[in-house]
Specification:
Largest sheet of chain A: 5 strands, parallel
Mean pLDDT of chain A: 91
CATH superfamily of chain B: Trimethylamine methyltransferase-like
Number of helices of chain B: 17
Oligomer: heterodimer
Largest sheet of chain B: 5 strands, parallel
Radius of gyration of chain B: 23 Å
CATH class of chain B: Alpha Beta
CATH architecture of chain B: Alpha-Beta Barrel
Number of strands of chain B: 20
Number of helices of chain A: 9
Structural class of chain A: alpha/beta
Mean pLDDT of chain B: 96
Chain lengths: 217, 487
């Protein structure tokens, strides 16, 4: 396979949601001496952008989006150690810390947004689910992310998003980070009410909103 | 007259679903985040992995639990009369619960509810005859969040005498809610003998009991307070994309709840309930008005019935945002199907927007749907010795049935005569009355019904005790006095 064919296959593996194949192609690329950065940008990221566009056009649905993101993640897991070894970093648009708030263990939406942000060029730290409020505050203090993402699926735990913002204010960190909120019951009105900086309806929208918040869109 | 019954699964289907559910409880097992429940499970023979807090539950344990769980029980009203029968194919209705928004008449935007909104909704639900129970339908935003669950129950107990479908948001607040119920019942024994409320307890899909819900379940069981499982696989997201697969997951989660509840107290009343949903693969929303959601509901209820258990479902709701055509069609479909499935408690009246928004006007519209569905369930009466022969001969050709005793005797039994919410006027009359659409007619009806509401007969000292318990619970969170309401 020529390099061009390899890059095309990488993109294809994401579009088709072939997780194993994506990782295998990444290993093959490393064996053949393909620059991992090139593999990401010209291969996988191109694929995920195509997936996003098909989703926006109504041709693709959430399973395609989620599996494309998983394929991209599997490839990144192979390529990242090599990037580190070469002391290269993917130029990212910004750092994002994301998690599902305390009392809520719902993962799917949050992980989808995290992966799409990562695919969209952000460096994402995923704190997982049921994340205590103080953990968010610590992460903002220590990792100094540009954006903090707070997910909640339940109408009851959605209220915790307000608490996290209040805790950031109390810790004197609120003006150092843009806070994005999301999750099924969350609305723009809710985001406005609790003083969040951004909200999006879905994972694709979240990437656009994140870019806007950092003045990139 | 035939028995009206809708079954989506064959007996063989039900057998296979249960077989797979039993197998899931063994492997991968159920995650249980309440340490005491996990210990109980281990003590009773489950293999427990302490690190992942997973219980692998063998089939014999499930069978044992199914032997002690009651096949039927009642909820009682304030006067101590049995008002809701959980069991058999009896069907009851209550408003959908725990909405965090309310839609005002004429508005396209929902807003956060306050005390006055829940009071109005409770009064309305109290007056509406076809609602057999009320629910703690709105989460009031004018009290501290930490007591928002128990505050709803406080209002429900003050403003209606009907049974209450409720639920706790925390471990500590359950205890307060229990005390509220005891205050009205008079004693713990009186409450245990005549339960007034049922608590929703929600396992987290797939196959997990959080500490709060598991604790709520154990607390309910220990005090003989009925608990209703609300298993909610989202088909294709937090459960299998196939409807049958989601029913399997629902069965496994619910069976694990029965095991935990019966270990805590053999004989504790439990309900095979749920709020599963299809998953919209474009928007990522859980559409409660989707026909597939209703199909999963009917199928899981059938599985519960095959085990002889009382059933519940969140049905009769819509995902529409305002009172439009979608709201009517989705709510009517769900309500009729739930009734045909013989589901004991159908929670959903008044609810819009994915179980997040209540509307008083929708509640009275849904009340009409429920009344029509109830009429449907009564079926066609074939009990008369002559069905039609005698009367048709008597009236003869070109006769007028309107002026016969036969009509006079039968029509009120045969016909459900709807309220003014349903328009059956000739066009000109409709125009002369203002040409009101269903939402406008519903709004007028809400006002009429609120005007005839009568408060329940609660002794002053009970009211004082309810207030004191609620206030005491709220004080640590800055509640200095209970909100006042108007109207």
């Amino acid at each position: 396979m020529s390099k061009e064919e390899l890059l095309a296959a990488m993109s294809e593996s994401v579009i088709e949601g072939e997780i194993e194949r994506a990782a295998e192609l990444a290993r093959q690329a490393l064996e053949e001496g393909v620059d991992p950065l090139e593999a990401i940008e010209q291969g996988y990221a191109r694929g995920i952008r195509e997936v996003g566009e098909r989703f926006a056009r109504g041709e693709y649905f959430l399973p395609h989006l989620a599996m494309g993101a998983e394929a991209m993640k599997a490839a990144m897991a192979v390529l990242e150690p090599e990037l580190a070894r070469r002391q290269k970093e993917r130029t990212t648009l910004g750092r994002v810390v994301i998690g599902t708030v305390a009392g809520d263990i719902h993962e799917i939406g949050k992980t989808l947004v995290a992966t799409m942000l990562s695919a969209g060029g952000f460096a994402v730290t995923d704190l997982g689910v049921d994340v205590p409020t103080r953990r968010f505050v610590e992460a903002v203090r220590e990792e100094k992310p540009h954006i903090l993402g707070l997910s909640a699926l339940l109408t009851t735990t959605m209220l915790v998003q307000r608490e996290v913002i209040a805790a950031l204010e109390e810790a004197g960190l609120r003006d150092q980070v843009k806070v994005m909120v999301g999750g099924a019951p969350v609305t723009q009105a809710w985001a406005d009410e609790i003083g969040a900086d951004g909200y999006a309806e879905d994972a694709i929208g979240a990437v656009q909103r994140a870019r806007q918040l950092l003045g990139l869109a | 007259m035939a028995t009206i019954q809708l079954r989506l699964l064959s007996e063989e289907d039900v057998r296979r679903i249960l077989e797979e559910a039993y197998a899931l409880l063994e492997e991968p097992g159920v995650r249980v985040y309440d340490p005491e429940a996990l210990e109980m499970l281990e003590g009773a023979g489950a293999r427990v992995d302490g690190e992942t807090r997973t219980a692998h539950i063998p089939a014999q344990m499930v069978d044992r639990a199914l032997e002690t769980v009651p096949r039927s029980f009642y909820l009682y009203d304030l006067q101590g009369r049995p008002a809701v029968h959980y069991g058999g194919d009896d069907v009851h209705f209550d408003p959908g619960s725990a909405a965090i928004y309310i839609l005002d008449y004429g508005s396209t935007r929902s807003r956060k509810p306050v005390t006055a909104d829940l009071v109005a909704l409770l009064k309305l639900a109290d007056v509406l005859k076809e609602l057999d129970a009320v629910s703690t339908a709105l989460v009031c935003s004018d009290v501290p969040r930490e007591i928002s669950d128990l505050y709803r129950l406080y209002l429900a107990l003050r403003f209606t005498g009907k049974p209450v479908v409720t639920g706790a948001f925390a471990i500590e607040t359950w205890e307060v809610m229990y005390r509220l119920l005891v205050a009205v019942a008079g004693s713990e024994e009186a409450l245990a003998a005549r339960p007034r409320a049922v608590f929703d307890v929600c396992p987290s899909p797939p196959l997990l009991w959080s500490e709060i819900t598991c604790r709520n379940l154990v607390d309910c069981a220990r005090h003989n307070v009925p608990a209703e499982f609300v298993s909610m696989p989202l088909a294709g997201a937090t459960g299998p994309a196939t409807l049958a697969g989601s029913v399997v997951q629902h069965a496994a989660e619910s069976l694990s709840g029965i095991v935990i509840g019966q270990l805590a107290n053999p004989g504790a009343p439990l309900v095979w309930g749920g709020s599963p949903a299809a998953f919209d693969m474009r928007t990522g929303t859980p559409p409660m008005g989707a026909i597939e959601t209703m199909m999963i509901d009917l199928a899981y209820a059938q599985v519960g019935k095959s085990l002889g258990l009382p059933t519940h479902a969140y049905m009769g709701m819509s995902d529409a945002k305002v009172l439009d055509a979608q709201v009517g069609l989705e709510s009517a479909l769900g309500t009729l199907l739930a009734a045909l499935g013989g589901i004991n408690m159908v929670s959903g009246a008044g609810m819009l927007d994915f179980e997040s928004c209540q509307s008083l006007e929708k509640l009275v519209i849904d009340h009409e749907i429920i009344a029509m569905v109830r009429r449907f369930l009564r079926g066609i009466d074939t009990g008369e010795p002559s069905l039609g022969l005698e009367i048709i001969r008597q009236v003869g050709h070109r006769g007028n049935f309107l002026v016969t005793q036969h009509t006079r005797r039968h029509f009120q039994k045969e016909l459900y005569l709807p309220s003014s919410v349903i328009d059956r006027d000739f066009r000109q009359a409709w125009e002369e009355k203002g040409g009101l659409d269903a939402a406008a007619r519903a709004h007028r009806r809400v006002q009429e019904l609120l005007a005839v509401y009568q408060p329940p007969a609660l002794p002053d000292e009970v009211v004082a005790e309810l207030e004191e318990i609620t206030l005491q619970a709220g004080r640590p969170y800055g509640l200095e006095h209970l909100p006042v309401w108007y109207g």
